[in-house]
Design brief:
By secondary structure, the chain is of the alpha+beta class. The protein is built from 4 helices and 6 strands, in the order βββαααββαβ. A two-stranded antiparallel ribbon has the order 1-2. It has a two-stranded antiparallel sheet with strand order 3-6. A hairpin with a 2-residue loop joins strand 1 and strand 2.
Length: 147
Amino acid sequence: MIDDGEADWKIIAIDINDPWASQMNDIQDVEQKLPGVLEDIRHWWRVYKVAEGKPENKFGFGERFLKRSFALDVVQQTHEFWLNLAKTVVVDKKKSPLAHCGKHPLHVSLRDVESLSALSDNCDSSGSDERKRGTKRQGSFKAASTA
C-alpha cells in the first residue's frame, strides 16, 4: 500500500487456532474459500484515513495481493532492518536516524533487541509448518499475503 506517498506494507495473517487456518496457506486460498474478503480488506485500507481528511491510499503491484513467500520475505527484511537499527543505537550508542516516532522519542532497550532476536529464532520463512512461528508472542499466526 502507498500511504502518504510512502510504502506501507500490510500483511494478511490468520490465527493458527482459527477454524479456517488449516485451509488458508496462501492468498489464493482466501479468495477461493472466502470470496469478497480480500476486496473488503483492500477497500478498508484504501479509505480508513479519509475520515481524518487524508486522501485515499493507493496500491502498488497493480493492486494485486502478493503470495505468502513474498510476505514472509518482507517480514524478514523488515525485521533485519529494525534489528540492525536497534543494535546500532543500543550497542554502538549511535544516534538513530529515526530519533522520533511521530511526536514521541524512540526508545529501544537492549532487552527489546534481545527478545526480538530470540523471537526471530522461532520464525521459519521457508513456508514449512514444521517449526512453530511466533511462540513467544501471545498468539501464533500464518502469513498469507502482503499488499
